[in-house]
Amino acid sequence: MNSTNNDDRGSITPKISAALEQWDGAKLLRVLWISCAALVVAGLVFDLHPHFGYEEIPLFHALFGFGAFVVIVALGAALRFVVSRPENYYEAHNGTEGAGLPEADLEVEPETGQPEDHLRV
Amino acid sequence: MFESLPPGLLLIVGGLLALVLRGTLRSAVLLALPILGAVQLWWLPNGYTINWQPFEGYLFEIVRVDELSRVFGYVFYLAAFLSVLFSLHVKDTMQQCAGIAYAGSGVAALFAGDLITLFVWWELTAVTSVFLIFARRTDRAYRTGVRYLVVQVLSGVLLLAGALLHYGDTGSLAFGKLGLGSLGRDLIFVAFGIKAAFPLLNGWLQDAYPESTATGSVWLSSFTTKLAIYALARGYAGTEILIPIGCVMTVFPVFFAVIENDLRRVLAYSLNNQLGFMVVGIGIGTELALNGTAAHAFAHILYKSLLFMSMGAVLYRTGTVKASELGGLYKSMPWTATFCIIGAAAISAFPLFSGFTSKSMILTAAAEEHHPIVFLVLLFASAGVLEHSGIKIPYFAFFAHDSGKRVQEAPRNMLVAMGIAAALCIGLGVFYQPLYALLPHRVPYSPYTMSHIVTQLQLLVFAIAAFVILQKLHLYPSERRATILGADWFYRRPFPALAMWSGRMISAAQKGFVVATLATLRGGGRVLRKLYAPPGPLGEPWPTGPAALVAAILLVVYLVSVYV
Questions:
Q1: Does one domain contain both A75 and A40?
Q2: What are B490-507's pLDDT values in tens digits?
Q3: Do the chains contact at A46 and B450, CB–CB below 8 Å?
């Protein structure tokens, strides 16, 4: 909290910081799993007025949301092999011809030396 | 007298005024102008027009106020006000003048009743906004700005050509419902499509917006693309091809956004995806769908500005918006982090936030018109929005691994602007009735039904669960520094290369032509001299016409290859 001590926006700022700090990790996850459970129950209990046949699959929206997210991340990661180029791709080849270097040639060193595992959730 | 000014002109005049004003007075004038503009718009009744007939047969409808232009007009003024407030600390006259004049020309274009007036303001948005990119004052920004300007002006030229052809066909310049079907109207469609960032015409958006200044991209995110959405809604509502175009727009940026490292470029992809929802709404074309498009544009301008503001604040304080270099900023920028999370929740369309009350309208319209595949695509794209704007932006900037950066919180004016935008994001999610009342059509619609709430929450919460699980399993792609190629690649790499190549070919051909001509002359010289002894016509210097033509071609090739 030291970083916010010299801040001129009153005493609420550190409180927001602290609240954000508190809300990471286990607490947030617990809320997430409880919400998932609650939504499963709600999905099974309420009539959700399906417009289309596929919506009548139980928990369709939940399954679709989960599946879509995984597909998006997987396809995005695959796309990296096609469209990812070194950071200076356009600058390095300004006014010249020739294809960019394959990505592997410019593996950037980690800037801050942070450990690879940067999960907070 | 107040009402006889075209809406938006006030801001353009203000932009010129800001050139000479300084300090607090300039700030006050810049802040007051959008408010005055909104009051003027409130004053003008629907159906109000200003006509101008410079000569017989040409009637220009410089101003036409109706429901559709009004709702866009209000949100443009609101966005202009927030952008002024957000950039109040900026001491750069160029940016402040360009920004307000850009907003003014955007507003003026909304109220253009004929295609030529539209063209004039359309081009002025291009010319004024490019300064927001130049204002970064780096070589890279300069090059980007020129590319941006070329594309934007091209859009304007197509609009003008289309308008003139359309006039030739119909004898009318009125900007009303056009639809496809003639060359002129098709050209206008493409012109709108460029600014609306249709697939493959979208390169300029991801190229230019992230290269603008910390405050400039907030201005840029609001006006150009939404002007195009308005124009499409006016001219091409119910044009069915817009449905597949919109679907592609919602989906393809999602994958790029996953791997893009520059968070403002992620926002540019996200912007493209949001435009897709609006384009689908226009394509469906029912009253509910068009209401949904207008409502979504309104809500979108606010949460997208908010997200660009939060990333602008991060850029301003840390000097970077690269995900690989950020993280942990919530400790030193807790307010910005909070506002960013609110913007993220709004764009992800969580219930009680503005995206929910607007986007659900487009989805409902797709369902009511029996588009099962479109509905599925929009659901898929909604999960994508959550991925890149709901999670990636706030998570990698403010949480994730701590980058160790300890900076000051954003300046007060930035915080106030973000605070107002955040309040509006929640406000429109809870008290949506005033926005619905502004929409062009009177259609009963209620966003908060049990079915809407539960299905949307299921989609979002289980997508978040997927994120958490992928992270735990180390399957979520880590942020890497890289350039992700987009549609701008085509005109940044192969096209200049082709231009260089054809330039070389032309000069080779020219050389060959000269050599061959000289040889012919030498061979036939004797004969010719006999026929045309000096001072005969061939005794004169080399004709200048063809030489000038060759020089002009070379100049064009040179310009294109150097500047594009």
A1: no
A2: 888 888 888 888 888 888
A3: yes
